[in-house]
Design goal:
By secondary structure, the chain is an alpha/beta fold. The protein contains 12 helices and 11 strands. The chain has a 6-stranded mixed sheet with strand order 2-1-3-10-4-11, sandwiched between helices. The chain has a 5-stranded mixed sheet with strand order 7-6-8-5-9.
Length: about 300
């Protein structure tokens, strides 16, 4: 009797243990199955979200960058199902720090030189992916329609800061108004007055007049002509009312130096968004828009970064 009771207890315990073990195995399997299902659902949800993320956010300064984005690039992107959001900045620092922090997909406002300087100075990790345009310096006049109309002794304004002043003189030489720069930019004692009176370099006796670069458009009525930076010409509405008599020409080196590039954070160069943006920004429609809208104050420059 005692043996029978003992045997029954052992069997009952074994069955109970088997039942408990079986339940644990089923529960673990069920839990594992649920985890796998949840992981698959999460992966599918992420893929669906990625596939549905058709918005591209680009930081830009107002003129001409944001205008180009909003007035033509948005339309070109929409043809391929993309939505463009332009975030306008009034300075050159925030568009880069915002891109570095992942708040933007790209930005469009700067030259390679500026971007490289910011990468070095601020520890950023930005990369240029496509050239879009150049804002060339132009020769503007409210009194004359061509360079050949400028009389001997005409007053010609140039920017008074060293870099843009020499750029203005180079433009006058490039377009044949001056024979050479004389000693301008190389001789500290050779001033704008020296160039005005240098009959060899300036046989037409043009009066070279240095003024603040930003004030040149406002001073144009008092001058016969002026060499004006593209951004200041645009802000003053000159291209529409008084198109440039001529603009800078560029060789390979100066083209790269003066081009404004589309910039992304390193590692995102080949993303679907950025490839779509590059395609739109360098399209024939954008080229036609730039040519017809800015009339030489902005020119297309679809070059690869180097």
């Amino acid at each position: 009797m005692k043996k029978s009771i003992f045997t029954s207890l052992v069997l009952a315990g074994t069955l109970a243990l088997g039942v408990l073990t079986g339940c644990g195995a089923d529960g673990a399997a069920q839990s594992a199955g649920q985890s796998a299902d949840q992981e698959a659902d999460a992966t599918a949800a992420t893929a669906t979200a990625d596939a549905g993320d058709k918005k591209i956010t680009v930081g830009a300064t107002p003129v001409p960058h944001a205008e180009i984005l909003d007035n033509i690039v948005k339309e070109v992107l929409a043809e391929d199902g993309w939505e463009l959001e332009t975030v306008v900045f009034s300075d050159y620092v925030l568009p880069n720090t915002s891109l570095e922090q992942g708040e933007l997909d790209a930005n469009y406002f700067q030259t390679l030189g500026y971007m490289n300087q910011q990468n070095t100075d601020a520890g950023l990790h930005l990369k240029a992916v496509a050239g879009v345009h150049i804002e060339p310096m132009g020769i503007y006049s409210q009194k004359y329609k061509s360079l050949s109309e400028l009389p001997d002794g005409a007053s010609i304004g140039i920017p008074n800061d060293p870099d843009n002043g020499e750029r203005g003189i180079d433009l006058l030489v490039q377009k044949g108004l001056l024979v050479s720069k004389g000693g301008f930019g190389t001789d500290a004692n050779y001033t704008e007055d020296s160039l005005t009176n240098d009959k060899e370099a300036n046989p037409h006796g043009y009066v070279i007049t240095p003024l603040e670069a930003a004030s040149l458009p406002l001073s144009l009525p008092d001058l016969d002509a002026a060499t004006i930076n593209g951004n200041y010409a645009l802000e003053a509405g000159l291209p529409a009312e008084y198109p440039a008599l001529d603009i800078e020409s560029f060789d390979d080196e100066t083209t790269i130096k003066r081009t404004n590039f589309l910039v992304v954070k390193e590692g995102n160069e080949n993303s679907e968004k950025i490839q779509a943006l590059i395609k739109a920004l360098t399209s024939d429609k954008v080229k036609e828009y730039i040519d017809s809208t800015y009339k030489g104050a902005v020119i297309p420059s679809f070059v690869d970064p180097q």
